[in-house]
Amino acid sequence: MAYFICSSCNYGSASWIGKCPGCGEWNTFVQKQDEKQITKKKASPTQFSTLKKIGKSSVRQSMGMFEFDRVLGGGIIAGEVVLLSGEPGIGKSTLLLQIIKNNVAIYVSGEESLEQVQHRAERLHADIGHILFSDGANVDQILSGIEEQKKPHLVILDSIQTLYTNDVETPPGSINQIKEVMNRVIPFAKKSGIPFLVIGHVTKDGDLAGPKTLEHMVDCVLSLEGDTSSPFRILRSTKNRFGSVDEIGVFEMKEDGLHEVNSATALLDITQKREVGKAIVGVCEGNRPMFLEVQALAVPTTFSMPRRVAKGIDFNRVQLLIAIAKKYLNLKLDSYDIYFNVIGGVRVTSPLADAGIIAALYSSVLSKTISTNQVFIGEVGLLGEIRSGFLGKKAYTEAKRLGLKPLEPLGFSSIKDIKKFIVSS
What we know:
By secondary structure, this protein is of the alpha/beta class. Helices cover 26% and strands 24% of the residues.
């Protein structure tokens, strides 16, 4: 008896359907034939053991880059599978190529030929003569080849969307292929103790391509973020079974690759003169204090509905702060087009930036400047109050140490105090 299976999400149906109820894709149902009944055999019993008999936990292996190790939690664990995602051209392959130069590794490139990888390594001045490379794409052959080699410190798969297995009929990059490939990589990594770094593509919306279950399968999910027009990149962890997700790594892209950035003010230029609509915010991205420049531009609108544009800041957060400013600062913002931008091409997720965003907006509306070393730290509530927020004290202490001027104490009590401060400055 024939039945139909969606090639994208594996949803089953007794008849052909144009649109899949499971994933919403069109024309993805493929006719299948019933498989022969499998004879059930009694499985051998599972052997259990106490944790005391297992022994000590594995020692972390350093990747040779402090910022990368920081995000992992101090290094990579034996048998750990790490998924690295990011926009095309953001520097994923560059970052991993710089990592393997310090490790005995195997690099599998399904997207580039060996000559292309060599050319990129020469541009980065990376000595990779000790690295084993392959441009194969069959995951079964790749894992068999790894077994024949001396145990490497690390295996890199670039990328998961290019790999396939002959046991799945759909083409490489399809959801079924991605899931099956990862289902073979993970048990191999756990059994052999070899850690894997796997590159994953992202969709046009910035989400990881493939099923959400792929993120649940791996041990760690990293995301490399940044604007391709800016040299700065931020490495975030959205999942980490063996470490914290409260750390970020900061890098600067140069001609010879990614360079680690350790300074909290690396994205800040306090030598510039005072300008209207510019404010310095102190935030904690993860557990790491950072100081960034937020710019706001408010101009009279020529449209029936004023424009709101935010770059580097969550748009819904901006809309919320504009509404708070309208009510408690008595600003007629309905007649203004408002634009926000975070300098450096990075994205701010911490609510500690709220006070600085309000300050930049008010500065632009009033055409008043703010001191270049004045720092705003604080989360703004719906009632217009300013709170120190999570890790606000840490950002405040770091600002004082660096010679900046955070508002005392940890910001004002209300955004009306920001208004008084800007008017009197």
